[in-house]
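Thread: "does anyone have the structure for this chain?"

Original post by V.I.:
We have the sequence but no experimental structure in hand. Need at least a predicted one for the grant figures.
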Amino acid sequence: MGMDNFTKHQQGIIKRYYQNIDQITWQKLSELVGDLYLAEGKKREKMWVTAATHMEKLEVPKERIAIILAKKDPAQLAKLVEELMSGS
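Reply from O.Q.:
Generated one for you, tokens below.
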């Protein structure tokens, strides 16, 4: 499906979305940090899977993802988000 099927306005929205996909992804990841502190059980496990997906999209090294997922410590995820926000 090409961009021809969308109006110029819709095409602009789609282009801006993909131009800002990194910011959108780390924003979602940062929101997950707070949710992880409060979540329990299966919901928490699902959130960790989502967090892993977001980290992969942000091209976080696989070793770092593995360490964070092994410990399942929201504080470590928060530290990663801080690093991503500061550009480190």
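V.I.: this helps a lot. The chain has one domain: 22-86.
O.Q.: and Residues 6 and 12 are 10 Å apart (CA to CA).
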